[in-house]
Design brief:
Helix content: 10-25%
Structural class: mainly beta
Largest sheet: 9 strands, mixed
Radius of gyration: 27 Å
Strand order of the largest sheet: 17-16-19-14-13-12-1-15-18
Distance between the termini: 50 Å
Strand content: 35-45%
Shape: globular
Number of strands: 52
Number of helices: 9
Length: 833
């Protein structure tokens, strides 16, 4: 019927799909993006990378004071450098994390006050001091003060002690930093008794926090938060206190983090109420609480937050099938009349649903709209996720009642979905290519000498996420194997993704065979533990019909969760990045006169009269590995593309060979010429990461000094790596590289290290980063941070832009004050190949 798109997804439509209503006429106020924060999401300057941080437009993070003993990294002032340069908002300083024990050592307020003084003096001296928030107490309902006791008399004694200390510390902070913003009381959960007493006391004593904080750390929060929020606002009103900014500065459980369908439920709840919120820190620092793989690679959770960052205008009312319910379909939506876009993000339920967008204005959209539907799937905490696949691009008439219905069929519970509505112009959008795909749970396969485990359920919310809440572990005998029976529609090449865990402390292997044929060895990089899911991408050739794929034990032990089979439809992977959905700066215009191609119209860029002026659009481009890709601008005139510090002019529709690093790449585009303008539809990228034309140098080719030496290793690419590098100004490794041309290159370092500091925490994994100073020729050294690789035998890559002159160049690695990472080899690729 008019106003309804064809169904998306692979499953047949259910008789009674769930219904989600979006009312574009019911504004909730400007998009705030408050729920994208993290606790210990950053560990060091450069971990995560700038390309991971900048697209998310993060509003707040929580980190420890500089030099705090609670964790080995994540110091607020240290990470502020990368956070602020990538557009981050504010930093909460968890002041009690100055202590080393968990729960914190209770040495009395007299011990704490000198520490408070030191923290405030350091923060207030920072040039960005106005962007820091002090949180003087963390979970005082449990730690030090025991405010959750049911004994009323004891509660009042404990309460009065806490209130006294709150006032003392509050006034101490303000004495040093009169403009300080202070947040609290920061309970582990919502307690109406305490907050009623606290607000009355704080108002009376003139020590009200500027930001109200508490934690929501239970599955029931998805049901109870709305009531908690409403109750809190009523307490403020009854006490005559103007509404305070709220930051739920720890939210979600392990089973939620990294899972787009779970995150959609939490984020929609917080954004609807216009509160800030930071994801909890349950594992390792530096990965945005489970949303960044290594330092620069997105997983499904990262893409969900990238979508969230792309919402503009106002949020509008979304009515889900069930409100305030655990594990149900939930969503949030934005409406931008200037950009003429509406976006809906939703997830949390399997099966079928109809998304009904109401009050689609003809004055904004016209008589037709283009609807673009994409999916961000769960890829594990450490599993790479390519650019989300577009499931549908369809132009459709707006119904007589002003509505558009978008059917979603065969939804996955762990996935999130984005629907974008833009005005329909002339022409027809390119049909989305959705290949055949099927998933097979390990627990449903034939298991030999293994055990099925249950993970991450509502009742065990701090268990790790697993597909279907189950996986197969204890595959630790010589005969252990899992046989998956699969059926494929036709003969061809299939991409095989294995969701796995490897806690062995070294790369582990399994033997993969098809129908009992000759096995091939599959190598799995290490993971934090056996339930911290990662993803291994392979390919298999299969005839049409039913087959048995066997994964049998090799070296060490691997846990299996699920396998995904996807038909390979093209010899070269490709993606089109829509210009009208990319990041912009300047005064660009949106042109929807044509719905051809990606279907979302075009951006019109104007060039400026001076350097750095004019309009700019920035695309987030995914690369599965380091190497060369074909980059093609779909534009009406020439544009300039900037990547890794190199800028090149590109003709419209002309393919360029450009070097991308594994993970996300920020490609900026500007118009060419004085006061010219250009229409931009998309940036198209294809390829698998060619290394043809790159330079490669093994560790054995380097000149070593000062104790640095080659160490034999079966896991290094040529059997050895450079170890014992650094910890002295004399310890160096120098590579002589021969550049065919002068210009900008990407230096890709293959490295490993497993530095850790065990603080005795029950759940945090205190991994550490290493750094190296890299010098090219006689240039200034560049300090580069290398994240922990989970084991000494797993080699990751890190790309560093450098300038080389034609001919011989000396590239030197050193670290005068600490150990550098072990280096296997280096590669160099010119940005413009």
């Amino acid at each position: 019927m008019a106003g309804t798109l064809p169904a998306t997804g692979t499953a047949a439509a259910a008789a009674d799909p769930q219904r989600v209503s979006v009312d574009l006429a019911a504004s909730e106020g400007p998009v705030m993006r408050g729920a994208n924060g993290t606790l210990y999401g950053l560990s060091d300057d450069g971990v995560p990378s700038d390309a991971m941080l900048e697209p998310l437009k993060i509003t707040s993070i929580s980190q420890k004071p500089e030099g705090g003993a609670q964790h080995p990294n994540g110091d607020a002032l240290t990470v502020s450098k990368s956070f602020f340069r990538t557009g981050g908002g504010e930093i909460n300083v968890m002041m009690q994390d100055i202590y080393s024990k968990w729960p914190y050592e209770d040495l009395g307020i007299a011990d704490y006050l000198p520490k408070v003084d030191k923290i405030v003096k350091e923060v207030s001296a920072d040039p960005n001091s106005d962007r820091f928030v002090y949180i003087p107490f963390n979970e005082p309902d449990q730690i030090w003060y025991h405010l959750g006791t049911s004994d009323q008399a004891q509660y009042e004694v404990n309460r009065d002690r806490f209130f006294k200390d709150w006032k003392t510390v509050y006034e101490r902070i303000r004495a040093i930093d009169p403009d300080a913003r202070i947040a609290g009381p920061n309970e582990s959960g919502y307690h109406t008794r305490l907050l009623t007493d606290f607000l009355a006391f704080a108002k009376r004593e003139n020590v009200l926090p500027q930001i109200m904080t508490w934690h929501e750390l239970d599955s029931s929060s998805l049901k109870n938060f709305q009531g908690n929020y409403d109750n809190y606002r009523s307490i403020e009103k009854n006490l005559g206190i103007a509404p305070l900014k709220i930051n739920i500065d720890e939210y979600a459980n392990r089973r939620d983090l990294s899972v787009p369908g779970q995150l959609a439920q939490w984020v929609s709840m917080f954004e609807r109420n216009k509160v800030y919120a930071n994801q909890a820190y349950w594992d390792a620092a530096g990965n945005l609480d489970g949303n960044v793989v290594r330092s620069n690679i997105p997983n499904g959770g990262w893409w969900f937050f990238r979508w969230y960052a792309g919402l503009t205008g106002n949020t509008v009312k979304v009515t889900p099938p069930q409100a305030n319910t655990v594990d149900t379909l939930q969503g949030l939506a934005s409406y931008d009349t200037k950009r003429r876009q509406a976006q809906v993000l939703l997830g949390g339920s399997a099966g079928d649903s109809d998304v009904v967008v109401q009050n689609v204005s003809r004055s904004v959209f016209g008589r037709t709209v283009t609807a673009t539907v994409a999916e961000s799937a769960w890829s594990g905490y450490e599993g790479q996720h390519a650019t989300p696949r577009v499931l549908a691009r369809t132009k459709v008439k707006v119904a007589a009642d002003g509505s558009v219905t978008v059917p979603l069929r065969g939804m996955h519970k762990m996935s999130a979905y984005r629907i974008v509505l833009t005005p329909g112009g002339s022409g027809t959008p390119s049909t989305s290519s959705v290949p055949w795909a099927a998933s097979y749970e390990a627990e449903d396969a034939a298991i030999t000498d293994g055990k099925v485990y249950t993970q991450g359920t509502v009742s065990n919310a701090n268990g790790y996420a697993a597909s279907g809440t189950k996986d197969v572990g204890s595959l630790n005998t010589a005969s252990s194997k899992v046989d998956f029976t699969v059926t494929v529609p036709k003969a061809g090449t299939y991409d095989l993704a294995v969701l796995y865990g490897n806690q062995s402390g070294t790369p582990a292997t399994q033997k993969l065979s098809v129908d009992g044929g000759d096995p091939v060895t599959v190598s799995y990089p290490s993971t934090e533990n056996w339930t911290y899911r990662a993803k291994k991408d392979l390919s298999v050739e299969l005839p049409a019909g039913t087959h048995v794929l066997t994964l049998a034990k090799g070296d060490a032990e691997v846990t299996l969760d699920r396998i995904d089979l996807t038909a390979r439809t093209a010899s070269v992977p490709s993606a089109s990045y829509e210009a009208t959905l990319a990041d912009i700066s300047g005064k660009l215009a949106y042109d929807y006169s044509s719905s051809a191609g990606v279907g979302t119209g075009s951006l019109v860029l104007h060039s400026g009269s001076g350097s750095g002026s004019g309009d700019k659009v920035v695309f987030d481009v995914y690369a599965p590995r380091d190497g060369y890709y074909t980059v093609t601008p779909r534009t009406s005139a020439a544009v300039k593309l900037s990547l890794h510090g190199e800028t090149v002019t590109a003709a419209p529709g002309k393919a360029l060979r450009m070097y991308l690093v594994a993970g996300n790449n920020r490609v900026a585009m500007t118009a060419v010429g004085s006061y010219g303008k250009v229409s931009v539809r998309s940036l198209d990228v294809s390829g698998a990461g060619s290394t043809s034309g790159t330079l490669s140098y093994e560790g054995a080719s380097a000149t070593l000094a000062g104790g640095a030496k080659l160490v034999d290793s079966a896991h290094a690419s040529a059997g050895s790596y450079i170890g014992w590098l650094g910890n002295s100004a004399d310890s160096t490794a120098g590579f002589t590289v021969d550049a065919p041309k002068s210009g900008r290159y990407v230096l890709v370092v293959h490295y490993a290290h497993n530095d850790r500091r065990d603080n005795g925490h029950s759940y945090n994994t205190d991994i550490m980063s290493r750094t190296a100073d890299i010098t090219v020729g006689t240039g200034a050294p560049q300090k580069v941070t290398f994240k922990n690789t989970w084991s000494w035998d797993d080699y990751w890559t890190l790309g560093v832009p450098v300038d080389l002159k034609k001919g011989s160049n000396k590239v030197t690695f050193t670290n005068a004050s600490a150990w550098a990472p072990n280096i296997d080899r280096i590669e160099l690729g010119r940005v413009l190949g």
